[in-house]
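Request: Not sure, any thoughts?
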Amino acid sequence: AHFKKWDASTKWRSELAKAGVQTVNEKIYKSLKTKHPSRQDKHLPFYLHFDEISGAPAVPNDSAFRFFDNPTRVDQFISASAPNHSYLKRYLNLPKIEQGAFITIPTIHPNQLPTGYVEYHLPPGWPPGKYKVRFRVARADNAPEDRRFLEFGLRVRNVDLLSAHEVTGTMEDPQIIETSLEITRKHSLGENRDERQIYLREKGMHHQFHYPRKVFAETKKRNGYGPEYVFWIDWLEVERVTTEDQPLPEGMQAVVQLLNSEKLVEERSDEGLFVHQTDGIKAQKIRIINPDAGNNDFLHLREVQVMSGGKNIALRGTASQSSTHGNENERGAKSAIDGDMTSINHTSNMAESGEWWEVDLGREVSINEVRIYNRNDSPTTESRLKNYILEILDSKGNPQGENYPRTTELVDCFQKFLTQAFRGQAVDQSFIDRLLNYYHNKRKVDGLKHREALTSTLAIVLSSPMFLYKSEFSLKDQQIISQQELAQRLSYFLWSAPADATLINLANTGKLSDSKVLRQQTDRLIDDPRSTAMIHGLVHQWLDMERLDFFNVNLIKHRTYDNSVKMAVRDEVYETSSFLLKENRSITELLSADYVVINSLLAQFYGIPDVEGDHFRRVALPKNSPRGGLLGMAAIHLMGGNGDESSPVERGAWVLRKLLHQPPPPAPANVPNLARLSDKVLTTRDRLKAHQELPQCASCHRKIDPIGFGLENFDAVGLWRTENSYENPGKDQEKKTWKIDSSGQIHRGPFFSNYFGLRDHIASQKDAFANSFTSAVIEYGMGRPIGFSDQTLINEIVKQSKDKNYTLRSFFHALIQHENFKQK
């Protein structure tokens, strides 16, 4: 359609230009020639004066081309299409284009020709849960080396990136890549269609047109036509991950059982018939309750049949109802058991809340089936039996069956669910009674069905403080927690989840407090994949990783950085820590190491060769590499800047706080802002001398600045550099470039000649680093801030860990074995 419009537009504009250059239109022609002297006559924008040109051709008689007579829309179409028309036409000649689709850098508006991504909208109503997404993809033979990665995510315009993948498949041998996706109710039930949009797109080609256009211009200059069509997508499929083989906790098993306990009802709407299978239950009374009230919401029953041994025994019963609306003979209770199925006679009540109808069979009999015929002669009367409750009662009025769970079933479910939700804490019977009353009110007063009423009731549990907060009730009477609470404290520390059956059983038998058993269980929990949540959460909290999201990076200045890189550099910190935990290596390797834990995307960003694949793995480093340890990670340097330029002050203060355990005090309130020097073309060192001149600043900056300057070889996104520059943002745009000097002297400490000397000095401060890490472990494991009284605990943990070469697990064992872990 686009090319059809373009061809029609070209032909129409050519004819319009022939008319425009005629003498009769000389005034318009001269005006356009004056504005566009370099253009040939045939390319002048005569369409801007379409309605003034004598002899102008008619707009094609097709609704698709009616915009030709709108100068503004024609101008927009040409300006958007002209630069890319030949490039997009090239697309049609690519190999395998009939089988799959190529994607490239975005060109014109994606609503017209979305060659920048491939999308798929998940159908609404898909159940929440985990899904696998697979796609068959290839990389073109002429693809530039730096274009090797695809992004996968949700909502292409919002850049909700989920993962990035290296493509190694060729056009002759494509590869199948698998990734994961988790759908929530927000996605499956949301009205916004974009919430269900998944996409594939080339890495870095986010929805910012200034960057792709810059790339387009550069590559067109290089090859003559524009960016290569690099990635070919054959197909994409989504598969739900089933959880049937995964055991449910006892509390959830009780809920599932209760949800499945709703009695089978066969509804035949064409007859207004509801059939309840009762499986031969012994009963004497059948009661039907309509909880709805108001708006003429009467309880209407044409006929109720109670089947026993193939016969309708309701015919010989006695009927009654809560009230009668109208004539008793015509609309009384007996109208529902008179056997008349030919006319529309029915019962009717006064439409009050909780209206009921009942038949007494005279004695207890075996009931196989209850059939309820509703009025079905109009939509109004059909809807009046939508949320009824059926009760089957014995001679004493006790429930024997109903279309909702028995009280005993509800109590059993609530007890098990509450025990699970409240982490084994005993629950007062009064709370269960309140939940029962709430459930019955939702059914009988609000008219909710079983599933909705149960969901609403359980939501009370999940919003209660007992669920949201981890309480340790034994601390009210004593300072030592119970073994059951020890199990939960251990599990939430190492798994960020409730204790499993093994821990609970050991606690219930009194064995968990045994030092040997506790050590075995600590190792078991750490060896479990669920400990990943712990190490990620601990490191995130310790290193203040949230700062990565505090600012946006200048993507024009830092062209190799994008959202995929941001995800990878964050993961490098987590994956390196996970590697140390899994291998039980020394935490001092976070200060200096001869390896990195990276994937292929991060290897490309760092310039490390011969790394393929999306998974993170240990990669050996050459000698004199700036990488290795926290100081070699891009994420650390990203947090020490503002997204545009590095900040020696932020970096130096971070090293003091996190690595050397010497947190500087907060800056005074009256510190002059360095922005006052923005119009002066100065080096970074000269700019920061302003702080050293002020007495209230110098005492801290003597410690901070030398460390920060020692890290200046890393730019704002953590890439290595040997030069830096500053450009005056004013009109003259004066620029100064200088060679980076990373030498300095630690305050009251040794000199270092460059970054590597600084790194060696920091790596030698093992005890200080261990103190910093121990403080973080205590805060995370105990769930509270560190205090002055914790210094003895810190010293003991550091000492025990030092004896084991500061191995990562030794810190966890030392804390968990300590008496403080069992106290408030």
Q: What stands out?
A: The chain has a mean pLDDT of 87. The chain has 27 helices and 22 strands. Residues 563-583 form the longest helix (21 residues). The radius of gyration is 37 Å.
